[in-house]
Task: structure prediction
Amino acid sequence: MAKSSASDIITGLDIGSSSVRVAVGQRSSSGSGREAIQIIGAAEAPSVGVAKGVITSIEDAISSVSTCLEKVERMTGVQIDRAFVGISGSHIVSQESKGVVAVSRSDGEIREEDVDRALEAARTVATPLNYEILHVLPKSFTVDGQSGIKDPVGMTGIRLEVDAQIIQSLSSQLKNLTKCVYRTGIEIDDVVLGILAAAEAVATPRQKELGVAVASIGGSTTSLAVFEEGDALRTVVLPIGSDHITSDIAIGLRTSIEVAERVKIEHGLASSREVKKEDIRLADLGAEEDEVVSKKFVAEIIEARVEEIFGKIDKELKKIDRSGRLPAGIILTGGGAKLNGLVDMAKTELRLPAALGYPVNVSSITDRTNDIAFSTATGLVLWGHHLSESARGGAGLAGRFGDMQIGNKLKKLLKSLLP
Result:
């Protein structure tokens, strides 16, 4: 492999409840003069010390992250010294905010600085106690009462307003996550909400313009982001995931979690409607007891939990009046979305077009990129790439709003916590 400078390497680190995943991207100049990104390596390791998206044991989590980083370093021959880190968990909250400023120039021309000041004004929203702001996502601007403006720079006016969505994380969880990453010896470029990163990878700008939902089904949580006219309308992390399906199977079949997981992966179906009469021998899947269960019974157990997950997603869509009303439908991604029949179930339950979310417009030399479980890790690499492009106009949420990086003050605060 051609030797690359450290500045050409972008790393995405996704610390999940079931697995830790790392994707490593390398910038390369394309024929058009634009820098392209190529995924040169990806690795995963079982996650220990993480539950429901939050760190429950720092030492165990450090060990899991270190194992994963070592794997990807051996694979790529590149030493990883910094990364974009994904954060998730049901402690993530979002709220609407408005920022209002007077345009600074005497001729009334709106500049980038005015937009930054409006966003800063939106940040002053009363945050809940012990919460830190992760992202300020502008939805639309208003200039002198004219609303619905996407980019006000260059326009003329006296008063500039921004409607924004503020995404916040519990301070203690953010500090635990960053402490865990710093203790493995790598720097943090940015902390990014995992579902926003996943959406960078699996949803096209056209889909985000039309109206699309991206749902990342993880082990303990399901993250949802809804986009319309290119902006994030709503983000939410639901405390339910594919591990709940496994637990249901274990209880229903009175077997171990390990056997239940194999039943789910090898024989699981999201819908029981078209299941043929077929039996599953649990002994063939590692169970001590030689029991036979019907495939239909297993499908019924899974179906009940899948209906609950989609019911919660639909409830969130109803809150923003988008239930059954997203032209580009829903994109399902994350490790939990591998369940057979899930897409058809989504179409029925949500009354929307549905598809599995594979990374789009990403070249790779590893098959792992086509694994939907890696969409967040790949998306974090793209987030970093778009941030680096933002000086040249950039693309995507990260490119448009590069000022949303975790602040230097916060970085210093987090480092001061280290022993």
